[in-house]
Amino acid sequence: MKTRLGDLERAVMDVLWEQTEPMTVREVGRALADRDLAHTTVMTVLDRLAKKGVVRRHRDGRAWRYRPAASRETYISELMLDALGQTGDRDAALAAFVRSMSGQEAEVLRRLLLENHGEHGESDRSRM
Amino acid sequence: MVVAALLTLIAGGCLLAAHHLLRAQWPSRGPHVAVVAWQALGLAWGISTIGALLAFGLAPYGQGILLGLAALAEDAAANGLQLGVLAEGHFAATRVAAIVAAVGLTTVLLWGLAVSFIQVVRTRRRHRALLALVARDHPEIPGARVLDHPAAAAYCLPGVLNPQIVISAGALEVLDRRELAAVLAHEHAHLRQRHDLVLLPFSSLKRAFPKIRLMERCYNAVALLIEMCADDHARRYHSPRELATALVRFGAAGKAAIPLGAMAVVPNENQPEVLARVSRLLNPVKLSRRATAAVLSGSASLMAVTLTLWHLPL
């Protein structure tokens, strides 16, 4: 059940992200017609997304209209900044493979690898 | 009073040892052992500092720290806050101040740990929720989620139920298949060995004492050691050279499309972290068995002595 809901949330967000205009529950349901969802299901999913803060809604006549709180790219950037530890609280939340590197550091490393290639390159290959 | 003096010595010794450990070369040869040493130092420092304050404050009861605390409670119950025995001895005001300081320090440390833990849980929850919405699966890398972002990043999101490994499109672009496998093995090691939990006490120390630079340096040192532990794990199944190459590729590609303002926040001890990792991958030297045994038994005796002093009525 949980994965199904997660799956639906994702599908609904994709629909909202594709549209420039805020959408009603009915319109979202229609965009997902191939999934054959009940009106209440779509409403529940939109409600959950609103509670998570990723969807905003406002009244339009008798219906609610929903729109994404931020673009997909914004969220991806937020995740990346989290991961690279640049939001200020990298505290143990995530362990990035490499946090960040200056251009100079990268240059030193490249040289180190090149130099090392001659000495150890062969033996490393043979171990594979 | 003997106990108070000894615990003060231990607390000071821990700080000296921490300074030494920050500069020492051997931790990069045996990161697992070094992490144990850091944990012992941190724990012993806290316990001995609190113990020294308590031992001094409770000395008039002559029963050591643990029984002294019970005696203090009895005293307070019998005489109210006037404290009969304690008030009659020498340095009464200083002793009370020491006890208050000990309680204060204990509170700060535990509070810091709780706050760090809650913050981590919150950050992870939001991260996980967003990830579920924007990350995609990749048919060729099962078990990892992919983020469509041009900068190179690979990281893990620890958790009991649903730990995840995330890799950016930028990283997939610059890594070849074997390098990618090495990176994934590195992240798996973080998840399996729960490195986030190892780091948590140090990040809470850093939070509790934001003005003390030593705390931040210790945190950074442990964070780097944890990366080395994961590197070592990945090296068991993949060539170290592939891991090193992956690190270098990340360095070259990592800066693309990351807001420049944010780049300033780079932890930097005298030796750059990545450089340290790459050079030890290329020229691996293992800590000798004797050194390993020495560090481990040293850590164990440090803990044993500190804890024993809490029980001695001296």
Quick structural overview:
Chain B: InterPro entries: Beta-lactam_resp_regulator, Peptidase_M48. Chain A is mainly alpha-helical. Helix content of chain A is 59%, strand content 11%.
Features:
heterodimer; A: 128 residues; mainly alpha; two-stranded antiparallel ribbon; 11% strand; disordered C terminus; B: mainly alpha; four-stranded mixed beta sheet; 70% helix
Descriptive notes:
The complex is a heterodimer of chains A (128) and B (314). With 128 residues, chain A is mainly α. Chain A is built from 5 helices and 3 strands. Chain A has a two-stranded antiparallel sheet with strand order 1-2. Chain A starts with a helix and ends with a helix. Chain B has 314 residues and is mainly alpha-helical. Chain B has a domain at 126-259 and 268-283. Helix content of chain B is 70%, strand content 5%. Chain B is elongated. Residues 254-271 of chain B have low confidence and may be disordered. Classes of the chains: A mainly alpha (128), B mainly alpha (314). At the A-B interface, helix 1, helix 4, strand 3 and helix 5 of A face helix 5, strand 3, helix 7, helix 8 and helix 9 of B.
What's the number of extended β-strand segments of chain B? 4
Which strand order spans the largest sheet of chain A, edge to edge or round the barrel? 1-2
How far apart are the termini of chain B?
6 Å
The shape of chain B is: elongated
Pfam family, one (chain A): Penicillinase_R
Keywords (chain A): DNA-binding, Transcription, Transcription regulation
Protein name (chain A): Transcriptional regulator
Family (chain A): Belongs to the BlaI transcriptional regulatory family.
